[in-house]
Amino acid sequence: MTALLSVQDLTYTIRKRQGWLGSEERFTLSPVSFEINAGETLAIIGDNGSGKSLLARLLVGAERPSGGHIFLNGQKLDPFNIKQRCLNIRMIFQHSNESLNPGLSVGRILEEPLKLNTQLDARARQEKVVNTLKLVGLLPDHQFFYRHMLSDGQRQRVGLARALVLDPQVIVADEPFAALDPSVRSQTVNLIMALQRELGLGFVFISHNLGIVRHISDRLLVMQKGLVVESGKTETVFNWPKSEYTEKLVMAHQSLINR
Q1: Domain ABC transporter, which positions (predicted)?
Q2: Reported pTM
Q3: Domains in the chain, please, with CATH?
């Protein structure tokens, strides 16, 4: 069976000059490879600066890789074809409050991707906006709301709706629950899992919360300083970590939940 999303030897190098002497700082994302099938979730964990968010940006086309390839349903994605990537791989951002334009209504926020990427007329776009709001547990009237009128949980649902409105095949979520309180976080996690079952989406989920990672992911990728130090089925990695770094992460998580 052909994988929904296949990443082969993806690399990226950042060079920055810092300080008055112009010293060069270099960060290299070493070759990353993984596959996701429809309905599966791959979680990516690691400390800050490990390359998790950089990998997310490479997947959605916000950055162009130095090397390697990304395949969707066996077809190689052109790194210069942003529309192709935008239609099929969508992103949910960590801070929904910052990612939503305060000057636009929810309806306008959801309609804009449809205007830019589809041939739908105004009536069809309106119908799609309403149906997508319902899909994420919001009301049709929420299309008339502005950012300041929404709760944190509702804002994150709008972020999810914006990702889903183009009917993508893969969702990349970068710390989507970090700003939510525990009760709202639980509701949002359950919503995402239900939508994944219903729509057959592939999820790439980036998080520091190993409790959620263990709950929702099928496979796990552990990153440190741009390197993939371990990968495998989630339960296998949690129960029998092979690298010292992964073992430290798991032990830290266990110590928190056993307090």
Answers
A1: 5-250
A2: 0.90
A3: 40-66+79-257 (3.40.50.300)
